[in-house]
Design a protein that fits this description.
Blueprint (H helix, E strand, L loop, with lengths): L6 H9 L7 H14 L4 H13 L4 H9 L2 H4 L4 H8 L1 H14 L16 H17 L1 H16 L6 H21 L3 H15 L1 H13 L1 H21 L4 E7 L2 H12 L12 E7 L2 H14 L1 E2 L5 E2 L12 E7 L3 E9 H9 L14 H18 L4 H11 L4 E5 L5 E5 L4 H8 L1 H5 L1 E6 L2 E3 L11 E5 L21 H12 L3 H19 L5 H7 L5 H9 L5 H12 L17 E3 L7 E3 L11 E5 L5 E5 L3 H4 L7 E2 L1 E3 L6 E10 L4 H11 L3 E9 L4 E10 L2 H12 L4 E6 L2
Parallel strand pairs: 2-6, 13-15
Antiparallel strand pairs: 1-2, 3-5, 4-5, 5-6, 7-8, 9-10, 9-11, 12-17, 14-15, 14-16, 18-20, 18-21, 19-20
Helix pairs in contact: 1-2, 1-3, 2-4, 3-4, 3-9, 4-7, 4-9, 6-7, 7-8, 7-9, 8-9, 8-17, 8-18, 9-11, 10-11, 11-12, 12-14, 19-21, 22-24, 23-24, 25-28
């Protein structure tokens, strides 16, 4: 049974690092919450203990004790400020704002059930707190950790919603702040609720090998301690299994390679903690003298800190013959920062290691919050996931300054991170003194030099095309959009019209401007066209929206009808034989209509197919819609290009990268060195076609790409 948390536990924790005169504030806060909310004392104490474990200041601990008082009692923030001071009151107010995040009481038990707009608003409020006073988020994470440990007290529907919210928002926030201790606990507790059977299976598998694992840990620990003692290195050596959610990810990875659980050797991690940095390298020498290291599995994060903060040496060795084993070596101070992240040096923020990266991160958060005013929903969530919660890459300016960017960022992202004007004037880039394309993916340790024009012509609209891969970060994309927004409105409208007409023409789609403006919730066609012109709406977004609009979900029925091969629903009647008309080759995203034939069931045409437009027997037309079936559709595509060696190879490579099959191909050469290529592609719909066309237009020598009619 877990030890009951009381005020003595909290005082003991705080006395380890806080001066005795600060304890009065904490004791007063405890007495206050005991009187105001006696039923909440346990939760308040557990939250405060977690904050004390992060070794945060007395104001933060007092706020952790008081964080739910205004919501659960009649006590006002003014009363809290009068009794405990402005700083504590501000933290409680920040937590009150975060608590107002609204989540549905009941969610369907499946992934993705959370409404995207609610998700976006939750992220926005969390990031707002991070950018204003990071301690608010520390308290919120501690509060959530205690609630996750007591999930069984909640109703089942709310339990699932809380776990999903924790996995999608709180665990990534803990990861971003480097608070590993909280991150892995939040993930495991969420995983246990969201996928109980899988969680239970892994626990049983790990428990089944417990005795073998403990013998192995004791053996390795003894060997390392003895060898380190011989060279005079004072060290603490520990070994333990990795956490359950992490093992789940490894099992999926190994399963794809045809391996069983018993084949997974890196479920254990060993850690060597030493006093000083030189001891880290002495310990590394001992490890490598004992066992053969794997060259590609070595990382020195002491010389090159990960994400600007995390420091450690990671090495994987072939231990005791044939077993790969990961060993981490770090100082005790590095370990404290690795476990508690930003919180570990919050009290020593001035001049602390990693502050430059941390402050830059907060600046990016504020920019993202400003951007949220102009966009919402899915795009905001997607960008936050990449810009804030995703993996990072650290690169250097020619002067040696560090820039922290999301993985797969490009030189253009780097240029805009340094300065907006540098991005606008960029005409090329060098990485490690070599010229690279602007779509090059930056790697850890790269030295990036941006080449600029003397007179800025401004950014290219191609930079906003996601399929061309010039920009990864929402920060850079928004800077480019802002530049185009400043252009003349009439110019943006004209450019938007040209881009729209080109996209609809090459996709062979007929749809009115008014319908599209309504689809994107713009007040007028001019606003819609201007948004395309300055890059707020991409042509690929238009294609994707049209595809989604045409694909209607099947109505729920019980019992379900037998599966049918057709991906088309005939409205108002049961299942009928249908086939796609070869004269117009409709694909999901096209508006379609059915024609009742005399012998072959229903022939499905595009609504703008000439054979339908000019048909006499209108009574034989019937309403049809796309169903949700995952099916491939044959589409003829016409490409015009300058003939050259390797043209067809380059086109085929792009098509293959997109996962599209070429069913047939023919080439026709013309006298002016122009070649016409007719491909029959098997695609999933308009959205995939639009993305593929954009990539094909980037192939050297290609003049135009369009559906063939």
């Amino acid at each position: 049974m877990a030890k009951k948390t009381d005020i003595r536990t909290l005082i003991d924790k705080t006395q380890e690092y806080l001066p005795s005169e600060t304890l009065a504030l904490i004791e007063d806060a405890y007495e206050f919450v005991s009187q105001a909310c006696p039923g909440d004392v346990g939760h308040a104490l557990n939250t405060a203990v977690s904050i004390a474990e992060l070794q945060l200041d007395e104001h933060c601990i007092a706020a952790a004790l008081l964080h739910e008082v205004p919501m659960l009692s009649g006590v006002t923030l003014a009363e809290i400020e009068e009794k405990f001071g402005t700083e504590v009151a501000k933290l409680v107010e920040g937590l009150r704002k975060l608590a107002k995040i609204s989540w549905p009481e009941e969610l369907k038990p499946k992934k993705g059930a959370i409404d995207i707009e609610t998700h976006a608003e939750s992220l926005r409020k969390m990031l707002m707190a991070m950018s204003e006073d990071i301690r608010v988020v520390f308290i919120k994470l501690a509060c959530r950790l205690h609630k996750m440990r007591n999930l069984k007290q909640m109703p089942p529907a709310r339990r699932y919603a809380t776990a999903q919210e924790t996995m999608e928002i709180y665990a990534p926030v803990a990861h971003r702040l480097g608070i590993w201790q909280m991150k892995w606990q939040l993930e495991d507790l969420s995983f246990r609720c969201l996928e109980p059977n899988k969680y239970r299976d892994i626990v049983h598998l790990v428990a089944a090998r417990r005795e073998e694992r403990e013998r192995y840990i004791n053996q390795i620990t003894h060997i390392l301690k003895e060898e380190l003692r011989k060279v005079g290195v004072e060290a603490e050596v520990t070994g333990r299994p990795k956490h359950i959610y992490g093992i789940s990810g490894k099992m999926e990875k190994y399963a794809s390679q045809g391996k069983e659980f018993s084949d997974i050797y890196d479920l254990l991690g060993f850690r060597i903690l030493v006093n000083e940095v030189p001891d880290c390298y002495s310990a590394l020498g001992v490890v490598h003298s004992l066992w053969r290291p794997l060259p590609k599995e070595f990382n020195d994060y002491i010389v090159h800190p990960r994400e600007g903060v995390y420091q450690s040496i990671h090495t994987t060795v072939m231990c005791l013959g044939t077993t790969p084993l990961e060993i981490q070596i770090r100082t005790r101070e590095m370990h404290r920062i690795a476990e508690y992240g930003i919180a570990a040096h919050w009290r020593y923020k001035e001049g602390a290691k990693g502050d430059e990266v941390f402050e830059e991160r907060l600046a990016v958060l504020r920019q993202l919050l400003d951007w949220y005013k102009d966009v919402g929903g899915a795009e905001f969530v997607e960008s936050i996931s990449a810009d804030v919660f995703g993996d990072r890459v650290l690169v250097y300016t020619p002067k040696g300054d560090i820039k922290d960017l999301p993985t797969a960022s490009t030189p253009l992202d780097f240029a805009y991170r340094v300065h907006t004007d540098l991005g606008h004037r960029c005409i090329g880039a060098k990485v490690n003194r070599k010229m690279v394309p602007l779509s090059y993916h930056l790697q850890n340790g790269d030295i990036v030099e941006i080449l600029t024009a003397k007179k800025s012509k401004g950014p290219s609209r191609d930079w906003l095309n996601p399929t061309l891969g010039y920009l990864k970060t929402s920060h850079a994309r928004e800077k480019v959009r802002q530049w185009f927004r400043k252009q003349e409105r009439s110019e943006n409208i004209q450019r938007g019209r040209e881009l729209l007409e080109k996209e609809l023409r090459r996709l062979g789609i007929s749809v009115s401007d008014e319908e599209l403006a309504d689809l994107f919730k713009r007040d007028s066609v001019e606003d819609f066209l201007a948004a395309i012109g300055y890059g707020d709406i991409s042509t690929h977004q238009i294609a994707t929206k049209l595809a989604v609009q045409q694909e209607k979900p099947l109505p729920e029925v019980a019992p379900p009808k037998p599966e049918v091969s057709s991906a088309v629903q005939v409205m108002g009647v049961g299942d009928l034989l249908t086939h796609l008309a070869p004269c117009c080759n409709p694909v999901p995203g096209d508006g379609i209509i059915g024609y009742v034939t005399r012998t072959k069931g229903i022939s499905v045409h595009r609504k703008d197919c000439p054979n339908i437009v000019h048909i006499d027997e209108k009574e034989r037309l019937i309403k049809v819609e796309w169903g949700p079936r995952d099916q491939l559709y044959s589409v003829p595509v016409h490409i015009e290009a300058l003939d050259r060696v390797g043209l067809l190879r380059d086109i085929s490579a792009i098509v293959a990268e997109e996962g599209v099959n070429i069913a047939a191909a023919s080439l026709t050469d013309h006298e002016d060195q122009i070649t016409s290529i007719l491909l029959t592609l098997q695609t999933k719909g308009i959205g995939q076609l639009s993305r593929l066309f954009s990539k094909l237009e980037g192939v050297r020598g290609v003049i135009s790409v369009a559906r063939h009619t």
